[in-house]
Write a structure and sequence with these properties.
Layout: H1 12-24, H2 28-43, E1 47-53, E2 59-66, E3 77-79, H3 83-91, E4 95-98, E5 119-127, E6 130-139, H4 147-200, E7 212-215, E8 217-220, E9 223-231, H5 248-276, H6 279-282, H7 284-292, H8 295-306, H9 312-328, H10 333-353, E10 367-371, H11 376-381, E11 387-392, H12 400-408, E12 412-414, H13 419-422, E13 428-432, E14 437-440, H14 444-465, E15 472-473, E16 479-486, H15 490-497, E17 503-507, H16 509-513, H17 521-534, E18 540-543, H18 571-576, H19 578-591, E19 597-601, H20 607-627, E20 637-641, H21 644-648, H22 650-656, E21 659-662, H23 664-672, H24 690-706, E22 709-712, H25 720-729, E23 733-737, H26 741-748, H27 753-765, H28 769-782
Parallel strand pairs: 9-10, 10-11, 11-12, 16-17, 16-23, 17-18, 18-19, 19-20, 20-21, 21-22
Antiparallel strand pairs: 1-2, 1-6, 2-3, 4-5, 5-6, 7-14, 8-12, 9-13, 13-14, 15-16
Helix pairs in contact: 1-2, 1-4, 2-4, 5-7, 5-10, 8-9, 9-10, 17-19, 19-20, 22-24, 25-27, 25-28, 27-28
The protein binds phosphoenolpyruvate and magnesium ion.
């Protein structure tokens, strides 16, 4: 027998450590593993293991070990009437044995490789009086444990017992919770299904029913109250029947005449649309003209007349229906939406064919427009000053209704099933396009409530009006620059109305998205020039195409990707399509002659990409010079910092660019691995996460160190709490959706830079995003600023 080893620092400290371990651990197995490691270390034994009784009460299973093969965990199961561990349970007392392999109850499990051990100590674990497992110790050298050691181990066994019991209890509570959550989910599904059904067959307004509601998808948020303006009186194909005894030549002539008239009207619609909206919005009528002149379309029409002896209207009905059917079956949302164009064209030809005056949609009074769908020609002809809201049955995201609503800032919901059937002309409506709900014939009480909200909104808007022409200034007089993020041409007016100082981010993919083909260099040049000139000398930062991720170009096939946000997107696409990329840069350089413009590259993740972009700028300049076209030679070049690798390379990037644009929308999603559009992980998408704050601080310092410009252009700056922090961290230039500008100016006027700095300093100390938010909210309150 070897002499007694020097006593290890066991006892109270070990018990305290175990309590800490229990507090820190997240689950039973982790806790047990931590305990066995600690005990083996403190007792200087080669092995410490924990076995727990199985549900059958007849066998025990190895749950944690330090010293035996880890592969044995969960695998070694023994009956309680075999082996020494079982004996500890059977006898319900401590078993301490030298040379265990000589004991009659010894049982060898090859998975454990325990033949090397000469000492075995087993202490049973109890739940009240019932044994629930065993903690065992084994040593290579034969060893006698002191009574103190055994007593300390027994105390540990007692503690382990209680955590096992607690863990099992928690487990059963968790299972119950899961069950009740599942039940709640099922209940919600059932309710949803019922709601879906009631969308199709809504309850009739009964005695107790004060109003009816329909639901749809929000296309443009806002609230609107007004009577229903139904748009259901268009000339349709339903009444067109075939005729007997037609003269094909005559029918073909009639058709040709109608087509010609329609072509002229289409040119007129295009012009009208360009005047009212923009050349981009009008581009859709180019497509219509192309269809009206398409040989395939015309051949099919005349084929139906000549070969099948159909009348011209009937031939038209057939061919248009086939086209619509074909488009509707397309996978691609953009192509599906072309069915609406086909319907629009078909109706207009039909009107000309049957000699009916094109039905111009005259809205008598202002109201909420309810339509099956909004066709491109509706966009051109409707008097939009009378449209207070838009509700459509069709629900495609690319629909013209959505584009129209957005560019005019009209609250809109789409995908409202059977709306035309369920709403009567002039019926009072409340459109809550924040939640996607339409209230039909609401009670006075509901109307009052919405009117009050609407009044509040109007008051708030006019209160903020005064900020439009004032500079963005903190309470202690520090001036900031607030620019606008824009996409469609309509955003220009909104930006100016809200007092934006130029454009910090022009997302050029938006005009590309609203078209049916890539715009050529000249078209892009005119568009960019119009924007640059529209901001009267304030700089406009034009970002090159940022497609991919959630932004697809309808006419540009991109591969189906499992992970599009990590995929072929943004500058990666541009660098792989040099012609498209060069054309865009040439257009930007040409437009640069008309005012201050900056060139911004998105999603840069390494120096090679930046240098690739620089090479394209060089090629573009050489091309323009060769062609003798005037262009701006020295345009400031910047990169978006929105990928973690760019954060790490920031100093190197800074040496080769004129400015950074910090795209917090993407940056947050990539830093935190939380999809910016996925509600399931929205709680992880936290702009105030300490890791995000650290990145922001580092990038701010990097830009300052390198003496380059820096603009924050993600949505982050639209929230006063975030703004406080950004201000305190030293940022001075921001770009945001323009409607937020007056609000942020109003907020800035209440806070001093000195206070913001202190608040940011404190925030950087905190370890959780929610704590940061709470702290800033509290700090602002101490300065008399209440934010929600
Ligand atoms: C961003 O990522 O923060 C950004 C401004 O760009 P986008 O939202 O267009 O990706
Ligand atoms: Mg981005």
């Amino acid at each position: 027998m070897t002499p007694h080893r020097k006593k290890a620092p066991f006892g109270i400290t070990t018990l305290e450590d175990i309590s800490t371990l229990i507090l820190q651990s997240h689950d039973l197995d982790e806790t047990l593993n931590n305990i066995v490691s600690l005990v083996a270390r403190r007792m200087r034994t080669e092995v410490c293991s924990i076995y727990l009784l199985e549900d059958d009460h007849q066998s025990i299973r190895l749950r944690a070990t330090k010293g035996l093969s880890r592969r044995a965990i969960g695998r070694v199961v023994m009956r309680i009437d075999e082996g020494l561990t079982g004996l500890a349970i059977e006898n319900g007392r401590v078993i301490s044995i030298l040379e265990p392999n000589k004991h009659p109850r010894y049982r060898y499990f090859k998975e454990t490789r325990e033949e090397r051990f000469h000492t075995f100590l087993g202490i049973p674990l109890f739940d009240r009086r019932e044994p629930i497992g065993v903690i065992t110790i084994q040593t290579v050298e034969p060893r006698q444990f002191s009574p103190e050691e055994i007593s300390a181990l027994s105390t540990i066994a007692f503690q382990v017992s209680s955590i096992v019991v607690n863990a099992r209890l928690l487990d059963s509570i968790r299972r119950k919770e899961e069950e009740s959550n599942r039940f709640a989910r099922e209940l919600e599904m059932t309710r949803k299904n019922l709601r879906e059904q009631s969308r199709e067959e809504p309850e009739e307004a009964g005695a107790e029913q004060e109003y009816r509601t329909l639901r749809g998808t929000v296309a443009y948020p806002g609230v609107s109250i007004g009577p229903a303006n139904l748009l259901d009186e268009r000339l349709g194909f339903a009444d067109i029947l075939d005729e007997e005894g037609i003269v094909p030549e005559k029918e073909c002539e009639k058709l040709e005449g109608a087509l010609e008239k329609t072509r002229i009207q289409t040119l007129y619609l295009e012009k009208r649309m360009a005047d009212r909206f923009s050349a981009d919005d009008a581009a859709i009528f180019h497509t219509h003209l192309m269809i009206l002149e398409d040989r395939g379309f015309l051949k099919r029409l005349t084929g139906e007349i000549r070969d099948k002896q159909h009348s011209a209207p009937y031939a038209l009905k057939k061919v248009v229906a086939e086209y619509i059917e074909g488009f509707s079956r397309m996978d691609d949302a953009y192509l599906r939406e072309r069915a609406a164009d086909m319907e629009d064209i078909g109706r207009r030809i039909l009107a000309n064919l049957v000699g009916q005056k094109t039905h111009h949609l005259h809205l008598k009074n202002p109201g909420i427009l309810v339509a099956k769908e909004l066709l491109p020609s509706d966009m051109a002809t409707l008097d939009h000053t009378k449209i207070q809201g838009i509700v459509t049955e069709a629900g495609e995201k690319n629909s013209h209704a959505v584009i129209m609503a957005k560019s005019m800032g009209i609250p809109a919901i789409v995908g409202v099933k059977s709306a035309l059937k369920l709403i009567h002309p002039d019926e009072p409506l409340i459109l809550d396009a924040n939640s996607g709900t339409l209230y039909i014939s609401p009670s006075e009480q509901i109307k009052d409530e919405f009117e009050r909200l609407e009044q509040d909104r109007i008051r708030e808007t006019s209160r903020l009006e005064k900020y439009r022409d004032l500079p963005a200034r903190t309470r202690d007089g520090v001036e900031l620059t607030l620019r606008a993020n824009i996409g469609l041409i309509g955003d220009m007016a909104i930006a100016r109305r809200n007092g934006a100082v130029g454009v910090g981010l022009y997302r050029t993919e938006f005009p590309y998205m609203a078209r049916s083909d890539f715009p050529d260099r000249n078209e892009q040049y005119h568009l960019y020039r119009r924007i640059i000139e529209g901001f009267g000398g304030d700089p406009v930062t034009i970002r090159t195409l940022d497609i991919g991720g959630d932004k697809a170009l309808p006419y540009f096939t991109s591969p189906k990707e499992d992970n599009p946000f990590m995929g072929w997107r943004s500058v990666r696409v541009s660098l792989d399509h040099r012609d498209i990329f060069r054309t865009q840069i040439e257009a930007i350089l040409m437009a640069g002659v008309h005012g201050p413009v900056k060139l911004l590259f998105p999603m840069i993740s390494g120096m090679d990409e930046l240098r690739g972009c620089r090479r394209i700028i060089k090629e573009a300049s050489e091309n323009l010079a060769r062609e003798g076209i005037e262009f701006k030679e020295k345009v400031p070049v910047g990169v978006m910092i929105e990928v973690p690798s760019a954060v790490y390379l920031a100093d190197r990037l800074a040496r080769e660019v004129d400015f950074f644009a910090l795209g917090t929308n993407d940056l947050i999603q990539y830093v935190l691995a939380a999809d910016r559009n996925n509600p399931l992980v929205s709680k992880y998408y936290d702009p105030l996460h300490p890791a995000v704050l650290q990145v922001l601080k580092d990038i701010g310092q990097c830009a300052e160190r390198n003496g380059i410009g820096l603009c924050i252009c993600g949505e982050m700056a639209t929230d006063p709490i975030h703004m406080t922090l950004l201000l305190g961290l030293g940022f001075r230039e921001f770009s945001m959706a323009a409607p937020f500008i007056p609000r942020i100016k109003g907020f800035l006027g209440k806070i001093s830079l000195a206070d913001a700095r202190k608040i940011a300093e404190r925030a950087l100390e905190l370890e959780e995003g929610s704590l940061v938010r709470e702290q800033i909210r509290r700090d602002l309150l101490t300065h008399g600023i209440k934010v929600s």
